[in-house]
């Protein structure tokens, strides 16, 4: 099975204009599970760049089993930052 990031996804291209908008905070890659979804047809694999409120709506749709989020990341000024839940920062800072 190929990695989801190696395949062409529907929705926003990796260099989409939406990625660089000031309100964009999240990138999600997901599979559409429900046939009557606003995102697309059942089985479609999508990528979207979202503002905070749209991301919260996507999380609710995942709880309702309309979509299954495969990968997500924070977006800051167009930069995609990997976000790994449950992993704490292990850096130790020294006082000067």
Record keyword descriptors for this entry.
disordered C terminus, 5 strands, DUF5720, five-stranded mixed sheet, DUF5720 family protein, 30% strand, 1 helix, alpha+beta, 96 residues
Structure characterization notes:
It contains one helix and five strands; from the N terminus they run E-E-E-H-E-E. With 96 residues, the chain is α+β, with helices and mostly antiparallel strands. A five-stranded mixed β-sheet has the order 1-3-2-4-5, with helices on one face. Strand 4 (67-76) and strand 5 form a beta hairpin. The chain starts with 9 loop residues before the first strand and ends in a 14-residue tail after the last strand. Residues 86-96 have low confidence and may be disordered.
Strand order of the largest sheet: 1-3-2-4-5
- The quaternary organization reads as single chain
Please tell me the overall pLDDT: 82
Provide the structure class. Answer: alpha+beta
The gyration radius over C-alpha positions equals 15 Å
Percent of residues in beta strands? 25-35%
**Span from first to last CA?**
50 Å
Coarse morphology: globular
Uncertain parts: 86-96
Number of separate strands: 5
Main sheet specs:
5 strands, mixed
Helix content: 10-25%
Give helix and strand order, one letter per element, not per position.
EEEHEE
Total helical elements: 1
Task: Provide a concise account of the structure shown.
The chain has 96 residues and is an alpha+beta fold. The protein is 12% helix and 30% strand.
Write the layout of secondary structure elements.
Elements: E1 10-11, E2 26-32, E3 45-50, H1 52-63, E4 67-76, E5 79-82
Parallel strand pairs: 1-3
Antiparallel strand pairs: 2-3, 2-4, 4-5
Protein name: DUF5720 family protein
Organism: Faecalibacterium butyricigenerans
InterPro entries: DUF5720
